[in-house]
Design goal:
It contains four helices and ten strands; from the N terminus they run βαβαβαβββββββα. It has helices spanning 29-34, 51-60, 78-85, 167-179, and strands spanning 4-7, 38-41, 64-70, 89-90, 95-109, 115-121, 124-128, 134-138, 144-150, 159-160.
Length: 187
């Protein structure tokens, strides 16, 4: 099953809730691809021997990997870190996350500054492009185990919004505006 994504409502309720609009407004994969968000469905039970994961890592230059458990019992300073993850930000590099267990939400801004909620579950590998405004939170299960992939040494520097003058943001906007009206490449 493909990843699920939808436009979010404007409610300030618990961020771990789905926040569907009424009626629901689902977002197809090709719309995410137009924003530069890439997605693969892999086998999380055999990630150590997964040929497709190895091919993705080699093709994209992801030579560093670590695992992160996000839940109250396993993450030091859990509440503070979850609050930081949910603060709208960008990165200078891609954010690559492969969900091995559990589930959570990545929220990304579209070209009209609307929030799109992407629900990742075990088997979902997602790549957010450098410069895209986004945030992360758990869902009501309060647990996710993620593989984080990086090119070179791991760097996780968040630049909180506003960042319109950040080079990664400028490049992202430039790439986004150049793609308008162009056919999508297969992902």
């Amino acid at each position: 099953m493909a990843i699920e994504a939808w436009f979010m409502d404007d409610s300030l309720e618990d961020p771990r809730l789905p926040h569907h609009r009424h009626p629901k407004e689902l977002v197809p994969l090709d719309h995410l691809a137009e924003l530069g968000v890439l997605y693969w469905r892999l086998n999380p039970n055999d990630y150590e021997n997964d040929e497709e994961l190895r091919n993705i890592r080699e093709a994209r230059g992801y030579n560093y990997m670590d695992l992160l458990n996000i839940c109250p019992e396993k993450l030091e300073n859990y509440e503070e870190k979850l609050k930081n993850f949910y603060t709208e930000h960008i990165h200078a590099d891609e954010e690559i996350r492969y969900c091995l267990e559990g589930s959570g939400y990545f929220d990304v801004r579209d070209k009209d500054d609307r929030w799109i909620r992407i629900w990742i579950k075990a088997g979902d590998l997602i790549i957010l492009p450098a410069g895209i405004y986004h945030r992360f939170t758990l869902d009501t299960n309060n647990y996710v185990k993620l593989m984080r992939l990086f090119v070179g040494e791991p760097v996780w520097t968040a630049y909180n919004r506003p960042q319109e003058d950040h080079p990664a943001r400028k490049e992202y906007i430039n790439n986004l505006t150049q793609k308008i009206g162009m056919p999508l490449a297969a992902y």
